[in-house]
Amino acid sequence: MRERLTERLEEIKERGNYRTIKYVKPLSATRLIYESREYLNLCSNSYLSLHFHPQIIEEALKAINEYGVGVCSSRSVSGSVDLYKILEEEVAGYKGYERGLIFSNGYLANIGIISTLTDEDDVIFTDELNHSSLIHSMRLSRAKKVIYRHRDLRDLEKKLAVEACKGKRFVVTESIFSMDGDIAPLDGILELKKKYEFYTIVDDAHGTGVFGDKGSGVEEMFGLSGMMDVHMGTFGKSLGSYGAFVLADGVIIDFLINRAKTFMYTTSIPASSLASSLAALRIIKNDLSFKDKLWANIKRMREGLKGAGLDLKESYGPIIPIVVGEDSKAVKMQELLMEKGLFLQAIRPPTVPEGTSRLRLTVVSGFTEEEIDYAVHSIIDIGKRLGII
Ligand SMILES: Cc1ncc(COP(=O)(O)O)c(C=O)c1O
C-alpha cells in the first residue's frame, strides 16, 4: 500500500498540487504569526471578525466553568445539554424556520441530511460546483444524481423536465458558493418548484451573518427567508465558533434525530462552542455595525481590485476568487503575497475544477482601510508581475 501511496504523492507533487499544513498562531481576529513572522489573514471565514470578541469569549469561559470542557457523549445519549435547545430555537427563529437541529459541524450535517432524507427511488439535482460535503453526501445516498451546470436555471429545468422518478426529487445548492463567491438563483429555483415538484436543500454556510438587511443569510436577501425545505448553516464562519445547524419543519427534524447517523453517532460539541455561538447570534441580531463595516470593507476591496482590471468573475460579497489557472502559478502568487506579509492560500484541484486554480481572498469586518489598501496594492503589483492583469 505504501508504494502506491508514495507514487500517488509523487504525481501530486509533479502537478504542483502537493499540500502541507501551515501551523499558525492567531494574534487577533485578523492577524496571525506563521514561522515567526506576522501576517494579515486574508483567508479567514470569520467574516464579522467575532471570534475574538470579548463578550463572546467571556460567555465561552462561563460555559466551561458551568459545563466542563467537553460533553463526552453523543447528542442522543447524554450530550444534549440545555444550551442546544436554546440555540436551536434562536437560530431557527432568526432564519424563519419552524425547528432547528445542531450537528457537530457542517460536513456532518450535509452528510446527515442527504444520506438520510433521500432513498433509492429518488433523484437529486445538484449544482456542478457544490461543496465537497454535499458531493460526498450524495455518494452515500442511493438516489440517482443529476448534475446541472453551475447556477444555470435553464439546464436545471431541462433536466427536471426529463428526469422523472418513482420517489421524490431534490434540488441541492449552496446559497453562496464557497470557492467562487457567487450566488445561487434561489428565486428562480423556487419558481421552478411551482412547475416541477421537488424539495429544496440549501447550504447557507457562508451566507449567515452577511446577506440580507438583518444579516440572516442569502434567503433573506431574496426575500425568501424560511422558504426552503431544508436549510443548513454553520456556526464556524461568521458566527466565529464551531458547529452547524439544520433548519426545517418538525417532521424532517424528528426524522433526522431518529435516523441521521452523523447526528446520532458522534460526540456532541462542547458547551463553550454553543455558548459562544449563542452570544454571537445575539450580538449580530442586535447590532448591525459588524455587517455594515464588512460591506464597507467589501466595497473598498472590490473597487480597488476591479479598478486595476482584475476579473472577479461573478462573485458578490466577502469571497473574492482570483482565478489564475495553472496550479503552479497560483502557488507562485501565494508565495509572493506571503513575502509581503499577506496570508492566503492557493486553492487547487480537487477543491476547484482542473485549470481553475486560484487565490480565494476573503474580506472581513475587522480589516482597517489601510490594511485593505495594502492588500489591494500588493495583489495588483504581483498580478502584473505574473501576467494575470
Ligand atoms: C459550503 C460549505 N458547506 C459546508 C461546509 C462544512 O462546514 P464545517 O466547516 O462546519 O464542517 C463548508 C466548509 O467549510 C462549506 O464551505
Walkthrough of the structure:
This protein is an alpha/beta fold. The chain has two domains: 2-41 and 288-385, Aspartate Aminotransferase, domain 1, CATH 3.90.1150; 55-286, Type I PLP-dependent aspartate aminotransferase-like (Major domain) (Aspartate Aminotransferase, domain 2), CATH 3.40.640. The protein has helices at 2-14, 54-67, 75-79, 82-95, 106-117, 132-140, 153-162, 186-195, 218-221, 250-259, 261-264, 271-286, 289-307, 327-339, 369-385; strands at residues 24-26, 31-34, 37-41, 99-103, 123-127, 144-148, 169-174, 199-203, 230-234, 244-248, 319-325, 342-343, 346-347, 357-362. Strand 2 (31-34) and strand 3 (37-41) form a beta hairpin. Helix 2 (54-67) runs antiparallel to helix 12 (271-286), helix 5 (106-117) packs parallel to helix 6 and helix 5 (106-117) crosses helix 10. It starts with a helix and ends with a helix. Residues 105-107, 110, 131, 133, 174, 178, 203, 205-206, 234, 236, 244 line the site of pyridoxal-5'-phosphate.
Please summarize what this structure is.
The protein has 389 residues and is an alpha/beta fold.
How many strands appear in the DSSP assignment? 14
Regarding quaternary structure, what we see is single chain
Low-confidence stretches: none
Tally of DSSP helical segments: 15
User: How much is the average pLDDT?
Assistant: 96
Q: What structural class do you assign from the helix and strand content?
A: alpha/beta
The strands making up the biggest β-sheet line up spatially as 4-10-9-8-7-5-6
